[in-house]
């Protein structure tokens, strides 16, 4: 094992205790034989199709998004079904009751395939498909899908082949797209209007059901439950009072509306079909080329010997990987499997180790230039140029990671921790000689600010990740390139499903107008107090985001909360950054803190206590969004002197906040009263005004003098 591209020696030592170099697609199970090759080929083709369409031959927007969703569903069902197989030798065993489901389901899906092909043939020959044909198509497709969905919850395959129910779901996903793209030529004109008929309703309903089922498999029940609440609200609205009331909609109009660019095919799918698939594949190339390992090893070489070294490594490495990864919990598993055991080894309590990793991994999604795909959704929704969003995110991201770093350092000083020994770490001098492995990130940032499109910049960065691997022992040949494309699809499928499911919620909000009514309510609260309106918006954003991946959480919060903030006079950039931050922070906000729970599983400690600890380490981030409102200079809006002053005073406030939380200020412990004073000083410094800055400095100076006097008294007493 070499220090250049393999995990460092410390990682190898930890690996003997059960923690190895975990790939980003940490839940991958190796598939072999014909099934494995088929799934592998489907993943490669799915990713390659997107890269080709994005860079070489663009496809009409609606068609591309429909194909993207259908392909994601088909590949997703294939992967999730294959990963649950019992691969022990044996024959297919179908019990007697299961046959009563299998036979009608297979017959129905077969008839649906026949109707689709026949209707397509008629369309190609210039003859409109007969009405009976499309009616039979919709009914047979809906029937087969319903039987397959229920059967997939009850029975599992006992052989090496995918269960028949999952195979039907794969075919149904393809047929939905085939009907919308090949058979029906008026979807844009009819969908979401009174002209939509029963056939269109049933096809759209099948699509919605398939999206929700795949989301349940890859993201759990939290997002499904929230989506279910919105779907119920869409039909219960006429019977609800006050703010929630609306006139109600027919099934055909409602479900077809969801399958338009106001819902499933809207901004969330626009981003997942372009930026997310591209940058997730970029992350897969970093993984396959071992450039991602270099990032972690470089962090170990640079900070491993410092106080609490592994924790500081976790801060840097998780920030680097998290901005690309797209999910907080996924980043925790990708980097935390290495950093958490090492943090425990140098003296961090398991809860602290898990909390640090969860907070750092979550913060990676606010780090430009990629920001876990959140910046792309923001650019899509607001129309603000992507580069402007990335620049605006620099200072807040820096303050967030400065806060975690200070928390980590002060805890290490308070508990007398040391770093790792020299022989456990890679040689920094040799790591510096391989600094060219940072080239993909440098190319990405450089091309973006040279004016290249995001798609072109991401593609060039991805290609450069393969090229730089040729200068290492792990050069990427044709097989490695195909593996990276396959890995990209496996990593992207969960986010594709989540974005499509979030599109359902966005569609309900758009159709019912509940977002506009919520905005008017915020406006009423703001008449009393802007601070109260912001606090209320914060609570709603966190509540909407609990249990949801960041992309979905932000998409929903941007539809509900951001318009209200704009109505009370907050600029669009500030309003969307406000809700984006809290959508991200929902991953470390108890009681439903997915990143904290993932870290607790690795640290082998209590999940809720770990979530509370991660909340403590990320505390500064809960204050920063309020600073956007009171100090827009934090988002690079203002003169250079204003920006510099706010950065300096906010940085000092961050240190005071960390000292108050950790109970350690400068060179000594802080008692309870001193910690309260430090907290007051921190909030004053972070507020951003001249008067509050002076008050904060004054209180901080008072605590310093008090502490110095106490230390002198203790020194004399000891002498």
UniProtKB/TrEMBL annotation:
Residues 207-634 form the TRAP C4-dicarboxylate transport system permease DctM subunit domain. It is found in: Cell inner membrane. GO terms for molecular function: transmembrane transporter activity. GO terms for cellular component: plasma membrane. Pfam families: DctM (PF06808). It comes from the Bacteria. Keywords: Cell inner membrane, Cell membrane, Membrane, Transmembrane, Transmembrane helix, Transport. InterPro entries: DctM, TRAP_DctM-Dct_fused. Its main location: membrane. It is a multi-pass membrane protein. This is C4-dicarboxylate ABC transporter permease. It comes from Billgrantia endophytica.
């Amino acid at each position: 094992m070499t220090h250049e591209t393999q995990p460092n020696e410390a990682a190898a030592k930890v690996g003997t205790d059960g923690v190895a170099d975990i790939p980003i697609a940490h839940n991958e199970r190796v598939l072999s034989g014909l099934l494995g090759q088929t799934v592998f080929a489907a993943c490669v083709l799915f990713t390659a199709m997107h890269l080709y369409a994005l860079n070489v031959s663009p496809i009409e927007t609606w068609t591309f998004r429909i194909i993207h969703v259908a392909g994601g569903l088909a590949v997703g069902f294939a992967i999730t079904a294959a990963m649950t197989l019992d691969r022990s030798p044996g024959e297919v065993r179908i019990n007697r009751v299961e046959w009563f489901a299998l036979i009608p389901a297979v017959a129905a899906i077969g008839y649906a395939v026949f109707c689709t092909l026949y209707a397509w043939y008629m369309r190609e020959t210039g003859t409109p498909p007969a009405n009976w044909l499309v009616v039979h198509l919709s009914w047979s497709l809906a029937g087969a899908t319903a039987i397959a969905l229920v059967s997939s919850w009850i029975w599992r395959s006992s052989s090496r082949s995918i269960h028949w129910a999952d195979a039907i779901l794969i075919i149904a996903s393809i047929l939905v797209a085939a009907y919308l793209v090949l058979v029906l030529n008026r979807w844009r004109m009819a969908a979401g209007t009174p002209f939509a008929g029963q056939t269109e309703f049933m096809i759209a309903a099948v699509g919605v059901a398939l999206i929700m089922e795949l989301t349940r498999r890859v993201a759990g029940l939290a997002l499904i439950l929230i989506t279910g609440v919105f779907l119920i609200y869409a039909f219960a609205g006429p019977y609800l009072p006050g703010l929630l009331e609306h006139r109600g909609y027919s099934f055909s109009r409602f479900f077809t509306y969801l399958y338009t660019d106001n819902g499933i095919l809207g901004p969330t799918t626009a981003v997942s079909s372009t930026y997310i698939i591209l940058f997730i594949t970029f992350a897969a190339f970093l993984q396959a080329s071992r450039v991602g390992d270099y990032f972690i090893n470089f962090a170990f070489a640079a900070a491993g010997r410092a106080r609490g070294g592994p924790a500081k490594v976790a801060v840097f490495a998780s920030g680097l990987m998290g901005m690309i990864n797209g999910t907080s919990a996924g980043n925790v598993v990708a980097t935390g499997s290495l950093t958490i055991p090492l943090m425990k080894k140098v003296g961090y309590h398991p809860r602290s180790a898990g909390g640090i990793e969860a907070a750092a991994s979550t913060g990676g999604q606010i780090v430009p230039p990629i920001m876990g795909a959140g910046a792309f959704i923001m650019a899509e929704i607001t129309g603000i140029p992507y580069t402007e969003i990335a620049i605006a995110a620099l200072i807040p991201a820096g303050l967030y990671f400065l806060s975690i770093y200070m928390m980590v350092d002060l805890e290490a000083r308070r508990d007398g921790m040391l770093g790792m020994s020299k022989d456990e770490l890679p040689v920094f001098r040799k790591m510096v000689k391989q600094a060219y492995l940072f080239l993909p990130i440098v190319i990405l940032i450089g091309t973006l600010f040279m004016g290249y499109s995001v798609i072109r910049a991401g593609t060039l960065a991805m290609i450069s990740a393969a090229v730089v691997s040729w200068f290492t022992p792990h050069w990427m040949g044709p097989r490695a390139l195909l593996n990276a494309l396959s890995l990209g699809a496996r990593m992207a499928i969960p986010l594709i499903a989540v974005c499509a499911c979030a599109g359902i919620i966005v569609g309900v909000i758009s159709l019912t107008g509940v977002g506009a009514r919520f905005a008017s309510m915020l406006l009423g609260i703001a008449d009393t107090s802007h601070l109260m309106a912001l606090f209320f918006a914060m609570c709603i954003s966190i509540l909407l985001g609990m249990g949801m991946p960041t992309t979905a959480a932000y998409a929903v919060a941007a539809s509900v909360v951001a318009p209200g903030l704009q109505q009370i006079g907050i600029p669009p950039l500030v309003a969307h950054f406000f809700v984006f931050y809290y959508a991200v922070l929902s991953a470390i906000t108890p009681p439903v803190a997915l990143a904290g729970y993932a870290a607790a599983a690795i640290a082998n400690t209590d999940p809720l206590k770990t979530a509370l600890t991660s909340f403590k380490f990320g505390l500064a981030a809960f204050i920063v969004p309020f600073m956007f409102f009171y100090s827009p200079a934090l988002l690079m809006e203002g003169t250079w002197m204003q920006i510099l002053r706010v950065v300096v005073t906010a940085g000092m406030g961050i240190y005071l906040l960390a000292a108050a939380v950790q109970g350690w200020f400068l060179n000594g412990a802080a008692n309870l009263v001193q910690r309260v004073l430090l907290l007051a000083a921190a909030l004053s410094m972070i507020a951003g005004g001249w008067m509050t800055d002076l008050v904060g400095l004054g209180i901080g100076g008072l605590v310093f003098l008090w502490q110095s006097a106490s230390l002198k008294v203790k020194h004399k007493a000891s002498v």
